[in-house]
């Protein structure tokens, strides 16, 4: 049996930009992507702690070390700069594999990977 489980999470990052005039996605600092084991093009769920919005999009690699969390296109209407969001990715895996799988969970500090 295959099940969908938490693969990666960036917990409580701050939105730094919302760009309505871009073709959709979320731009994430490459350092944060690496820490959370996320890749460009990966589907993610965004949970906005400020307004309760939950939506899905895909990742675009942002400038390393910038702290960038930018919602693009239609997703820009779901956030405001300064909102606190959780970025989640999931993976399909066999039930037995899932029992021992350890997700990458990152608690950034000011949108930087904690040391």
Short structural summary:
The protein is mainly beta and 115 residues long. It has helices at 30-35, 95-100; strands at residues 2-14, 17-19, 25-29, 43-48, 54-62, 69-72, 84-94, 104-106. The protein has an 8-stranded mixed β-sheet.
Structure characterization notes:
By secondary structure, this protein is mainly beta. 10% of the residues lie in helices and 47% in strands. It is built from 2 helices and 8 strands; from the N terminus they run E-E-E-H-E-E-E-E-H-E.
Tally of individual helices: 2
Kindly state the mean pLDDT as a whole number? 97
Strand order of the largest sheet: 2-6-3-5-4-7-1-8
Low-confidence stretches: none
Described by the principal axes of the CA atoms, the overall outline is globular
Structural class: mainly beta
Number of β-strand runs: 8
Radius of gyration over all CA atoms, rounded: 14 Å
Measured between the Cα atoms of the first and last residue, the distance is: 38 Å
- Portion of residues within helices: 10-25%
User: N-to-C SSE series?
Assistant: EEEHEEEEHE
The percent range for strand residues is over 45%
The largest sheet is:
8 strands, mixed
């Amino acid at each position: 049996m295959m099940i969908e489980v938490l693969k990666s999470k960036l917990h409580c990052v701050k939105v730094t930009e919302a760009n309505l005039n871009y073709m959709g996605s979320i731009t994430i600092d490459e350092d944060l992507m690496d820490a959370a084991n996320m890749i460009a093009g990966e589907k993610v769920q965004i949970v906005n702690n400020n307004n309760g919005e939950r939506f899905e999009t895909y990742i675009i690699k942002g400038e390393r070390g910038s702290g960038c969390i930018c919602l693009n296109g239609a997703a820009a209407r779901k956030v405001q700069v300064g909102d606190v969001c959780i970025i989640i990715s999931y993976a399909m895996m066999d039930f037995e594999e899932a029992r021992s799988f350890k997700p990458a969970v990152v608690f950034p500090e000011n949108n930087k990977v904690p040391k």
